[in-house]
């Protein structure tokens, strides 16, 4: 079957760095997406990886290892506004997204 | 340009009533998705449209749920004889759907603000 696993909740301190991990098992693979969702709002796109390695975009970076079925989202210089849920989604061979349950990130001052 | 819009933003209904939720995708987006999200949970896939046809209805939780899309644009999700467990936020997303290599690039999904459904 198809499955996405990510931690339910994480806590970090303002100004620090946090890494949110995601492991996936899909029928075929066409890339890994990360979305951010603030409470009460719709998810918004953060990043997309299809090749192994690290993609950096400002304070956010995303890493992919296809051989390990593993990705992580790295958030640096955390700000209070980064408090949100972070959703991992893998695209399968039919180009459909398989979604994880999301990781709720709590930032403390 | 306009994003994905959904209406109503909030809907409170009594158990047993039918409800209809509407989604207006981004103009030109051929793919449309419906998801359900319960409080504090991840996204639950319901149905996917490519144009007006629905190649994947696997996520519809029961025969009380149905969806249609007309003119390759607006979609409606109908829930008949609502139950309290149907209470959730219903999210709609749309994407382009290119061919070949571009299918990957164009499959970023853009989400609407959602409809919060409360069944009393």
Low-confidence stretches of chain B: none
Specify the helix fraction band of chain A. under 10%
Low-confidence stretches of chain A: none
Strand elements of chain B, count: 11
Gross morphology of chain B: globular
Oligomer: heterodimer
Portion of residues in beta strands of chain B equals over 45%
**Per the principal axes of the C-alpha atoms, what is the gross shape of chain A?**
globular
Distance between the termini of chain B: 37 Å
Structural class of chain A: mainly beta
* Major β-sheet profile of chain A: 6 strands, mixed
Mean pLDDT of chain A: 93
Q: What does this molecule look like?
A:
The complex is a heterodimer of chains A (109) and B (120). By secondary structure, chain A is an all-beta fold. In chain A, 0% of the residues lie in helices and 57% in strands. Chain A starts with a strand and ends with a strand. Chain B has 120 residues and is mainly beta. Chain B contains 1 helix and 11 strands, in the order βββββββββαββ. The interface between A and B is medium-sized, with 21 and 20 residues.
Quick tags:
heterodimer; A: 109 residues; mainly beta; 6-stranded mixed beta sheet; 5-stranded antiparallel beta sheet; 11 strands; globular; B: mainly beta; 7-stranded mixed beta sheet; 4-stranded antiparallel beta sheet; 1 helix
Report a brief summary of the structure.
The complex is a heterodimer of chains A (109) and B (120). By secondary structure, chain A is mostly beta strands.
Can you lay out the helices and strands and say which pair or pack?
The complex is a heterodimer of chains A (about 110) and B (about 120).
Chain A: E1 3-5, E2 9-13, E3 18-25, E4 32-37, E5 44-49, E6 53-57, E7 60-65, E8 70-75, E9 84-91, E10 97-99, E11 103-108
Parallel strand pairs in A: 2-11
Antiparallel strand pairs in A: 1-3, 3-8, 4-5, 4-9, 6-7, 7-8, 9-10, 9-11
Chain B: E1 5-7, E2 10-13, E3 19-24, E4 31-37, E5 44-50, E6 53-56, E7 65-69, E8 75-79, E9 88-95, H1 102-105, E10 110-111, E11 115-119
Parallel strand pairs in B: 2-11
Antiparallel strand pairs in B: 1-3, 3-8, 4-5, 4-9, 5-6, 7-8, 9-10, 9-11
């Amino acid at each position: 079957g198809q499955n996405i696993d990510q931690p339910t909740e994480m806590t970090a301190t303002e100004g620090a760095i946090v890494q949110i991990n995601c492991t996936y098992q899909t029928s075929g693979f066409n890339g890994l997406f990360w979305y951010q969702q603030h409470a009460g709002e719709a998810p918004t796109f953060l990043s997309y990886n299809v090749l192994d390695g690290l993609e950096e975009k400002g304070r956010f970076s995303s890493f992919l290892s296809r051989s390990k079925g593993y990705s992580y989202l790295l958030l640096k210089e955390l700000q209070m506004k980064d408090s949100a849920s972070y959703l991992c989604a893998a695209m399968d061979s039919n180009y459909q997204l398989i979604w994880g349950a999301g990781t709720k990130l709590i930032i403390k001052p | 340009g306009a994003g994905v819009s959904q209406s109503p933003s909030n809907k409170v209904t009594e158990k047993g009533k039918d409800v209809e939720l509407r989604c207006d995708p981004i103009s030109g987006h051929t793919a449309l998705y419906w998801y359900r999200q319960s409080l504090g949970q991840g996204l639950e896939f319901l149905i996917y449209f490519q144009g007006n046809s629905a190649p994947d209805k696997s996520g519809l939780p029961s025969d009380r749920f149905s969806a249609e899309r007309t003119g390759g644009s607006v979609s409606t999700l109908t829930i008949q004889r609502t139950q309290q467990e149907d209470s959730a936020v219903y999210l709609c997303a749309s994407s382009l759907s290119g061919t070949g290599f571009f299918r990957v690039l164009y499959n970023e999904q853009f989400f609407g603000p959602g409809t919060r459904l409360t069944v009393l």
